[in-house]
Amino acid sequence: MPGALSHIRVLDLSRVLAGPWCTQNLADLGAEVVKVEKPGSGDDTRAWGPPYLRDAAGKDTGESAYYLSCNRGKKSLALDISQPDGQRIVRELARHSDILVENYKVGGLARYGLDWDSLREINPRLIYCSITGFGQDGPYAARPGYDFIVQGMGGLMSVTGERDEAPGGGPQKVGVAVADLFTGMYATVAVLAALTFRERTGQGQHIDLALLDAQVAMLANQNMNFLTTGEAPERRGNAHPNIVPYQTFPTADGHIILAVGNDAQFRRFCTLAGCADLADDARFASNRARVAHRELLIPLLEQAMRQRSTHAWVAALEAAGVPCGPINRLGEVFADPQVQHRGMRFDLPHPSAGKVSLVANPIRLSASPVAYAEPPPMLGQHSEEILRGLLGMPEEEFVRLRDDKVIGTCS
Length: 411
Prior knowledge:
Layout: E1 9-13, H1 18-28, E2 32-37, E3 52-54, E4 60-64, H2 65-68, E5 74-79, H3 84-95, E6 99-102, H4 116-122, E7 127-132, H5 147-153, H6 178-201, E8 205-210, H7 211-217, H8 220-229, E9 246-250, E10 255-259, H9 263-273, H10 277-280, H11 287-292, H12 294-305, H13 310-319, E11 324-325, H14 330-335, H15 337-341, E12 345-350, E13 354-359, H16 383-390, H17 395-403, E14 407-408
Parallel strand pairs: 1-2, 1-6, 2-5, 6-7, 7-8
Antiparallel strand pairs: 3-4, 5-14, 9-10, 10-11, 12-13
């Protein structure tokens, strides 16, 4: 069955994570994605390892796990856009595309005549999505943007990590590049909104997405905690600023997440834990009171939680309808029966490794489901297909451009 975006072609001039995350989403939804990469080296993340994908004999294929995480379903065109012939080819591809995604520095593509103002003259229906660290304007526009820096500047690290006075206290970044990933997701939403607008008007448009903007926006309730009170939230480790108890607790053999969302759940938990009197105590009977008296309550709950193993607590709490869960390592995640049932890990054939294991897209569409046709491409794997097939380039011109190192192939 055709994917929801099987009628759409995407010209992907992005690299690293935020842009490729967006274009991988579009590829999963059925779009044809042409990924333009520098001949010889390609996307920076191809070299971001180890680890690297290995073939059946254990030999390193040169494809990093990082690169594999965000590039499936795409076609790789190795093209040197610093050369006039390369720029001409990008302009011709833009003429035949619906969407262009790029994450060059502000003004970086203008010197090649590949900026929004230049390409919309060629294709007024083009949706041109620019992803930068700080946006197309403002005092920081010229700065390069990196996820780690943006997590700090955008406030996320001020609310992530243990309290300063606690062991191991201090600011922490999140374990994955969430500023990049959220920006990629916002880019996906923006592109789909622009497509819908174009269906009604025939008009393309420019999308300006910044990592810092996305990072600030995603702080959600923490933003509103500050805007409502004028007081900046503090780091609380695994505790929640607005709900108690909603954090990790030590058990007899490890840790567990207890996520009590309302007073009825708290009462059921206290009964199960053998401390039913706490649910009747005015200091703890309501969530408002528990938040105000968390420093008194949490040590009492810690004593109770240490009496059973994590497995025993999970079984008992689930039976009682109290939200909880273990803290799994990734081996346990992919062995989890629910994760397996939902098909979150799958394999695709790979031209050099034989096969590659990948992580599924969580989107479930009933009429136009996500499909995975191709693994992340080898550098230049589709150069000839794109240039000779899509653009109708004569063989002699293709050979000349390959010999001049304007284009590259994987052979």
